[in-house]
Design a protein that fits this description.
This protein is of the alpha+beta class. It has 3 domains: about 60 residues, Transferase, Pyrimidine Nucleoside Phosphorylase, Chain C (Transferase, Pyrimidine Nucleoside Phosphorylase, Chain A, domain 3); about 260 residues, Nucleoside phosphorylase/phosphoribosyltransferase catalytic domain (Pyrimidine Nucleoside Phosphorylase, Chain A, domain 2); about 100 residues, Pyrimidine nucleoside phosphorylase-like, C-terminal domain (Aldehyde Oxidoreductase, domain 3, Alpha-Beta Complex). The protein is built from 17 helices and 15 strands. The strands form 5 sheets. It has a 4-stranded mixed beta sheet, sandwiched between helices. β4, α10 and β5 form a beta-alpha-beta unit. The radius of gyration is 22 Å and the shape is globular. It starts with a helix and ends with a strand. The site of uracil has 9 residues, from α9. Uracil binds next to α9.
Length: about 450
């Protein structure tokens, strides 16, 4: 077999067979196929797409390129382990809220999360802002932890789906990341390798996501569901909005604070308009995970259980249990506003400077470009340009206003917390470009403000 023939076949829109796909995946892992050959093939795939059979074979070949985890030692007591995966976004702290909620309701969660790269954040980095939290605990300990407290949140093992790691690195250099087939097979290969049998996808759409339109998001969801069917993973997808950042905070430690505050909501504050977007996403993801775990078929009833888990503080206590189990440092503090003392994680949240970013004109906030906000965070040091960059967990943004709000010139729209004045100057350019204010009519502003954040469910 020759790589040249495989590239030519794909270029000419002919279907590759299983042995050809295994040949280039395994050959690339063993360095027998060069980067230029692989780049040409990836571009042919990007331009011509893949058939269902090619997709399944590519996904399985990548999954089988290294070890496949066996989660059978997790005691499920008749329920199902459910994995959740977001295709990425800005301010996306949903995993950190959903996981303790569903674990407190009996769902067993074995969750692996990655670091952020480029403008999107990563759950592993957010957890990295908790002093002492060990995201790299050994597999055996993680499985024991799920048996003991119902959940673990660990980093994606370096040894899983090695082919995907190599191919993804090349895709990011050759303008071939944004291929629905390559994204779908990349995600699903890691899910197969991590032992997932039931998967709830959060497929984000908008400026801060890979998928820019709802149609693209639906298309990629259907591709992943189809791969799931072929490879034994029951997969469902929520399509969620990522045209503006999710929630009020963007930045690792700041997002952990928002997670804590959300999980400490009471019967009134949980319905606050300020957290409407995050609440909608969290409640839907949690309710679907409970259903997939076999713990309740009715989504509305599941949402009622989610509400109870939050307001009773069971979900918060589960979050603290998880942080403690993985070595996170905790302190106890008396909280006046809820009249009780609580355990809190110790955060790496020291910043030197705070700047309020104000409206340059009167009008309504029409859009907040989440990609630009993500890029501004990278400039401040809160995200990575290169995969080995060390990040500053403390920096970030807190939004005072959101899309659809009326503002007057000089009103604070967001607060920026930073440690390096030079970096702030550069980040400010992105922030300025991200916020668009105009004199639209109130009806349109209200529509923008109240737009749904969960756009569809596909299964
Ligand atoms: N996330 C992945 O894991 N892979 C992709 O290709 C894109 C997003």
């Amino acid at each position: 077999m020759r790589m040249y023939d495989i590239i030519e076949k794909k270029r000419d829109k002919k279907e590759l067979i299983k042995s050809e796909i295994e040949f280039f995946v395994n050959g690339y892992c063993k360095d027998e196929i060069t980067d230029y050959e692989m780049s040409a093939l990836l571009m042919a795939i990007y331009l011509n797409g893949m058939t269902k059979s090619e997709l399944t074979n590519l996904t399985l070949a990548m999954a089988n390129s290294s070890e496949i985890l066996d989660l059978s030692d997790i005691e499920t007591n008749g329920t199902f382990i459910v994995d959740k995966h977001s295709t990425g976004g800005i301010g996306d702290k949903a995993t950190l809220i959903v996981l303790p909620i569903v674990a407190s309701l009996g769902v067993k969660v074995f969750k692996m999360s990655g670091k952020g790269l480029g403008f999107t954040g990563g759950t592993a980095d957010k957890l990295g802002s908790i002093v002492g939290y060990d995201i790299n605990i050994p597999l055996e300990r993680a499985i024991n932890q799920v048996n003991e407290i119902g959940a673990c949140l660990i980093s994606q093992s370096k040894d899983l789906a090695i082919a995907d790691k190599k191919i993804y690195a090349l895709r990011s250099l050759t303008a071939t990341v944004e291929s629905p087939e390559l994204i779908a097979s990349s995600i699903m290969s890691k899910k197969i390798a991590s032992g997932t049998k039931k998967l709830l996808l959060d497929v984000t759409v908008g400026s801060g996501a890979f998928m820019k339109t709802k149609e693209e998001a639906k298309n990629i969801s259907n591709i992943m569901i189809a791969i799931g069917k072929e490879t034994g993973i029951e997969t469902k997808a929520l399509i969620t909005d990522m045209s503006e950042p999710l929630g009020k905070n963007v930045g690792n430690a700041m997002e952990i604070k928002e997670v804590i505050s959300f999980l400490l909501s009471d019967e009134t504050s949980i319905f606050s308009e300020d957290i409407a977007d995050l609440r909608e996403v969290v409640f839907n993801l949690s309710a679907w995970m409970i259903k997939m775990a076999g713990l309740g078929d009715d989504i509305e009833q599941n949402k009622a259980k989610v509400l109870e888990a939050i307001t009773s503080k069971r979900a918060y206590n589960k979050f603290i249990e998880l942080v403690k189990a993985q070595g996170g440092h905790i302190y106890n503090v008396y909280m006046d506003w809820i009249g009780m003392s609580l355990d809190m994680p110790v955060l790496k949240d020291e910043v030197k400077y705070l700047k309020e970013i104000t409206a340059q004109q009167d009008g309504y906030i029409v859009s907040i470009d989440s990609k630009k906000i993500g890029e501004a965070l990278v400039v401040l040091g809160g995200g990575r340009k290169e995969k080995d960059d060390v990040i500053d967990h403390a920096v970030g943004f807190e939004f005072v206003n959101e899309v659809g709000d009326r503002v007057q010139k000089g009103d604070t729209i967001l607060k920026c917390l930073y440690n390096d004045k030079n970096k702030f100057e550069e980040a400010f350019e992105y922030i300025e470009q991200a916020i668009y204010i105009d004199n639209i009519d109130k009806k349109l502003a209200d529509t923008l403000k109240n737009k749904p954040h969960v756009l569809d469910i596909i299964y």
